[in-house]
Amino acid sequence: MSADQQQSSIAKPQVIVNRQIVEDSWTRVLPAEDGSIAVPAEGKVIVPYRYWLEHRAELAGREIGVCFAPDDEPESLPVDANSFGVIAVDFPAFTDGRGFSIGRLLRERHGYRGELRAVGDVFKDTLNYLWRCGFDAFAVRADKDIADALRGLDDFTEFYQSSVQQPSPLFRRRHGDASHG
């Protein structure tokens, strides 16, 4: 088997985007053990937000996405959030919920309309809550079944609280008063 045949037979990672399982067209760039970052010369890449801040000029003209770490602040974004085709938010551990707030801020305060992707410790039990905070794409943990995780988006059919997806709380929707979100 030639190198090209081997390359084409390697399965590409999959993600959930808009409730569909698709091949991931983005490459997420992670720091090496020494902290260095090697960005591929071609293709769509998601780089750490802080790296993008420091290397914006050399990344100009490329199809770039950024990945917010839990301690990154969306308020520090020096450009329109919509200039990115994808914004990822890292969830390094199930117990770290700061990414939920980052997602909601990007959607509600910064008006981000592009793909908002949850990465890291992402699995079925978290998808519905992430979706309610504005996430529409999910890179499910490699040790979890992506099809099973997708079903997690439908675990609940009604919610009491307001959210990015449903701005009016249930009591307002029940009384036909959705105008007071």
UniProtKB/TrEMBL annotation:
Matching Pfam families: DUF934
Protein's recorded name: Oxidoreductase
